[in-house]
Amino acid sequence: MRVVESDEIRRLLDSNRAMLPKSIPDLAVGDVIRIKIVDPSNENKVQWFTGRVIHLRKAYTGSSVTLRNAVNEVAVERVVPLYSPWIREAYLLDRKPTEQQDLFYLRDRPPRESACGPMEPPELTKKNSRAQK
Predict the structure, then answer these.
(1) What are the recorded GO MF terms, alphabetically (predicted)?
(2) At CA 75, angle to CA 30 and CA 114, rounded to 5?
């Protein structure tokens, strides 16, 4: 069974359908990541999600990551499969090494401790339009 799953993982990585493990290969609990997810029903609808990794499930193609962030003083969690074809981009924003395996204790803390950044897409860098003197 493991051989079949490892072949499937290799096939997904080679076909560029596994965006998250390819862009952030050494993902760990405590990291802050921003991902771009496409709606499966509407390819034109894109959603960005920024969150701190509070749990990392490693189960071959069934691997997933649980992200947590606070928006308007409300904590939001999202479980994202690592080998999802709907993940288009992923960025590592911050790395915060932890001693713990999971950060589920954040669920009992105030939402401001889970806050890790805006949910908006990353801004494009603007060139300085002023003339250089």
Answers:
(1) structural constituent of ribosome
(2) 30
Q: pLDDT of 68-82, one tens digit each?
A: 999 888 999 999 988
Rounded-to-integer distance, Cα 39 and Cα 115, Å: 24
Tell me the pLDDT of the chain averaged across its residues. Answer: 78
Distance CA 117, CA 123 (A): 13
Q: Please tell me the distance from the alpha carbon of residue 57 to that of residue 55, in angstroms, as a whole number.
A: 6
pTM of the model: 0.72
Closest CA relative to residue 27, chosen from 5, 51, 2: 51
Contacts of 63 (CB under 8 A, 6+ apart): 21, 56, 57, 81, 82, 83
* CA dist., res. 55 & res. 79, Å (int): 9
Beta-carbon count within 10 A of 77 CB: 14
Domains of the chain, CATH where assigned: 2-113 (2.30.30.790)
pLDDT bracket for residue 125 (50, 70, 90): very low
